[in-house]
Design brief:
The protein contains 5 helices and no strands. By secondary structure, the protein is mainly α.
């Protein structure tokens, strides 16, 4: 009897451990994409910013994590639904336009939350750092070029000086 009870106990423990490992794997597959996306957005937002900017940004991102995650999920769902619409043999222009509209709305919602995070951080920064952020944002939006279309040279005048472009 003792060896039989030991064998049953070992089997039960094995089932519990295997169930936990499978649960962790499935959870990572389902929720892991959201975590990786949030991490990627955080990394992108902090990419070229000074270290003084990093801590307030991290705190603001933590405060809005739930909103950002749900906005990201909605965008992902809208994109998946668009693929479903495109896979249908006979689809209509209205269905495709509705799918594009849903994607657009989801992207706008995600940008809105991201901009709220930036606003909360930027208001805390001194003027020089806000101007540095604005200058780097202009360069980043123009594909690495200054507002005039040329790359700024070392020692050249900043794009924004004393709050005026």
């Amino acid at each position: 009897m003792t060896s039989r009870k030991g064998l049953l106990l070992a089997l039960l423990i094995s089932l519990i451990v295997n169930g936990a490992v499978i649960g962790l794997f499935i959870g990572d597959r389902i929720e892991g994409e959201d975590r990786r996306a949030m991490h990627g957005m955080t990394r992108q937002m902090l990419r070229d910013e000074p270290s003084e900017f990093a801590e307030p940004m991290r705190l603001a991102l933590e405060a809005h994590r739930g909103e950002m995650r749900s906005a990201y999920r909605e965008m992902r769902r809208a994109r998946h639904d668009m693929v479903k619409v495109l896979k249908v043999p006979m689809t209509s222009i209205a269905d495709i336009n509705n799918s594009f509209a849903r994607i657009r709305d989801a992207e706008i919602a995600l940008k809105k939350v991201s901009h709220q995070v930036l606003a909360e951080v930027l208001v805390q920064l001194p003027l020089e750092q806000r101007l540095h952020f604005a200058k780097s944002e202009i360069i980043r939006r123009s594909g690495g070029k200054s507002h005039s279309g040329e790359r700024p040279e070392k020692g050249s005048e900043p794009l924004i000086k004393n709050g005026v472009q």
